[in-house]
Structures are given as structure tokens and as C-alpha cells.
Amino acid sequence: MDTKRRTVLRALGAVGVAGLAGCTGTGGSGGSSDTETEGDTTTATPTEGEVTTTSGGDARPPTRDQALYLGHDVETIRGEITSGGVPKDGIPSIDDPQFVAADEATVDPGDPVFGVVRDGEAKAYPQLILVWHEIVNDVLGGDPVAVTYCPLTGTAQGFERGAVEFGTSGDLVNSNLVMYDRGTDSRWPQVTGTAVEGEMEGQSLQEFRVVWTTWEHWQAAYPDTVVLTDETGFSRRYGSDPYGQYNPDRGYYVSDQTIFPALMSDDRNRPKHVVIGTRTSEGALSFGKDALLEQRVLTGSIGETDYVAVADQTLRTGYIYENSGGVTVTPDGDGYRVDGTTYSADRLPLPSQIAFDGMWFAWAGFYPEIPYVE
Fold first, then answer.
1. Residue closest to 112 by CA, chosen among 132, 93, 130
2. Residues near 3 by Cβ (< 8 Å), separated by ≥ 6?
3. pLDDT tens for residues 214-255?
4. How far apart, in whole angstroms, are the C-alpha atoms of residue 16 and residue 19?
5. pLDDT of residue 171
């Protein structure tokens, strides 16, 4: 570990964090790799309802037809990748996730969870478990997926993974988790969703929406949800967060300090201010989360294309839609009126965009001069 890194770690101690895990990983991994799968190939014959996962070989995760916009060229992002202080898979992904029914869960009502629904199947992934693993290779609605979380940038995102799993590379860029796929070993910064190194360089992953909310809100909306348990196969201090806590906010999550330098600085907001953003093949756009929850409807644009963001008061989140036709969207009770009909926040009759929460410095660093609306 170089002098600069030691300085960074001492700085972390100054903001009251007892130890490191997650993106920096030293607390989460114990400093050594927990993986038993690197380079291995799973060859078990699937039975009905199972998904065969391949590591190595020619397997590739599915990608978008059009790559997502990057705020920097690939070479710049790749050049800014730095070690997080742990080896590849030193922060072990959860590859055999176990779930229990909601009434068996031991999650505090105010604790954050990352919720996903597909084909009527709802799952919740507690932040206090993912802070130690960052990636869950799961199957949802019969489809292999990866639910990912980076504590340092406050981003929870979902990716289709096809026949391959994702793991943690041990590296960071703009404080953000750099994933690798166990098929091609390409490197994928989580926020960009685009490979910046390896044979899949320049390609963007297919994504799905992950909702950052609290357990009480998620359970109220989806009482039949199942919840990820701490039966992960690893021994960790589940129930604690080495960075601080979200219930209530404390430590790294409220400090203005970042552990690693940002790609770009932008003083329009505090570094850890939470925004809901989206990116398309043309650009990126962000909305202040608190402002959206208060005002319920905000509008912005990427280039010549207009977008509208609406608040979901039940889950305390927001959704972003392309609105190139300039349709008027107005609050109507718990929903929104569009062309005389009322819809729930997640069902507006407009092209939906992948949106996710993130700390301001992360969005502003990856996407310089990103439009910000509040």
C-alpha cells in the first residue's frame, strides 16, 4: 500500500468510520480472497427452474444495442482506475443467495433495502448485507441477474448477466465499484455500465431498475416479497456497516469527504447529496431526490430530448421517462394524470428510463456538466 493510500485510510478514520469494507474492502474481505470460483467452470446439468452459470470460456453478459453515453473517453476512465486495496474477488460476491419470507426477516423498518420486481416476483436485498459483498448473482423471474451495490457512491444497480457471473475486481474508479465478468474478464465500472477494459470494451450492459427504499416501505408495497438472508456462506459482521449507517445517517454517508479523488468536482451540490439520475446513449440527466419527493414532478432534458421525473411517495423513490412529445404530467392523488388517465408513478405511458440513486460527486464525476434539476 502506497503512502497516498495510507493517507486516504487515515482520512477515513477522521470521519468516524471504524473500518473499511465494501468498495475499499479491507474490512469486508479480511484482506484475502474468499473466492473459490475464479477460473472454474460450473458444469452441472440444470434441472427445471435452474440456470447454468459459466465462468471462463466464451460466455458474455448481454449488452445493449447502443452503448450508453460516457462523460469521458474510455481511455481516460481506464487510466483513472485505482486499486481499492483488495485483490480480485477479495470482496466476495454472493453466488448462492438464500431468501426468507418477509415475516421471517430481521430487518429494521428504517433500514435501506434494494428492491426488484420481475414477473410478479419481488425480492429485497438489505444494504447491511450487500455492504459486505457488493454483488449478488441471482435469478429473478427465471432470468439470471446481478444486483450490485457500491457503498462509496451510494449506487444500487441491476444488470442482466446471461450465463456468466459478475465479481468484484478489487479496483475503483471515481470511488465506484469496478466489476468484472467471469466470462471475458472485462472491467465494468458499475455506474457507467460500460466496459472500459477487456474484449468487451465500449459495450454497455443491459440493465433493470433497482429501487432504493426502506424495508418498511418495500414491505408495505410488496407484502409477499422475499428477503435476502445473511446465509451467504461467509462470516461477516452482518447488521453493521463499517462506513457508518443510514438509519439514521452517520459517518461516511453524511461527511463531505470522499475517500478517493473524484474524476471531476462540481460545487453545485454537496458531494454526498443524493440525486436520481439517468443516462442514455446521448447523455445524462440528474434530479435532486429530496426536491423530486417534495415537488413530485420535475422536468429536464438531454440535448433536444425532454424528460419528466415523477415521485413515488409509497417507496420514496422516483422514476424518469422520456417525454419527447411534451405530454403534460400532473399529480392526481397518489398517481399522475396523463391525457386524462391516472397512472401510478411506475406505470406512466411514456418510455421509461433506467434511473438510480447516487451521490452527487459520483454522477458529476462520471458525467461532467450533467444537467441537474431541483
1. 130
2. none
3. 999 999 999 999 999 999 999 999 999 999 999 999 999 999
4. 9
5. 98
Alpha helices (H) along 87-229: 127-130, 215-221
What's the pTM?
A: 0.88
Residue from 154, 176, 157, 324 nearest 246 by CA: 154
Contact criterion met (CB below 8 Å) for 181 and 172: no
Amino acid type, 37: T
Chain segment 178-207, per-residue pLDDT in tens: 999 999 999 999 999 999 999 999 999 999
Measure the CA–CA gap between 170 and 86, rounded to whole angstroms: 5
Nearest to 358 by CA among 315, 312, 318: 318
Total residue count of the chain as it appears in this document:
374
Nearest Cα neighbor of 237 from 149, 129, 87, 154 is 129
In DSSP terms, 177 is beta-bridged to 172
* 5: enclosing H helix or E strand: helix 3-14
Within 8 A by CB and 6+ apart from 48, the residues are none
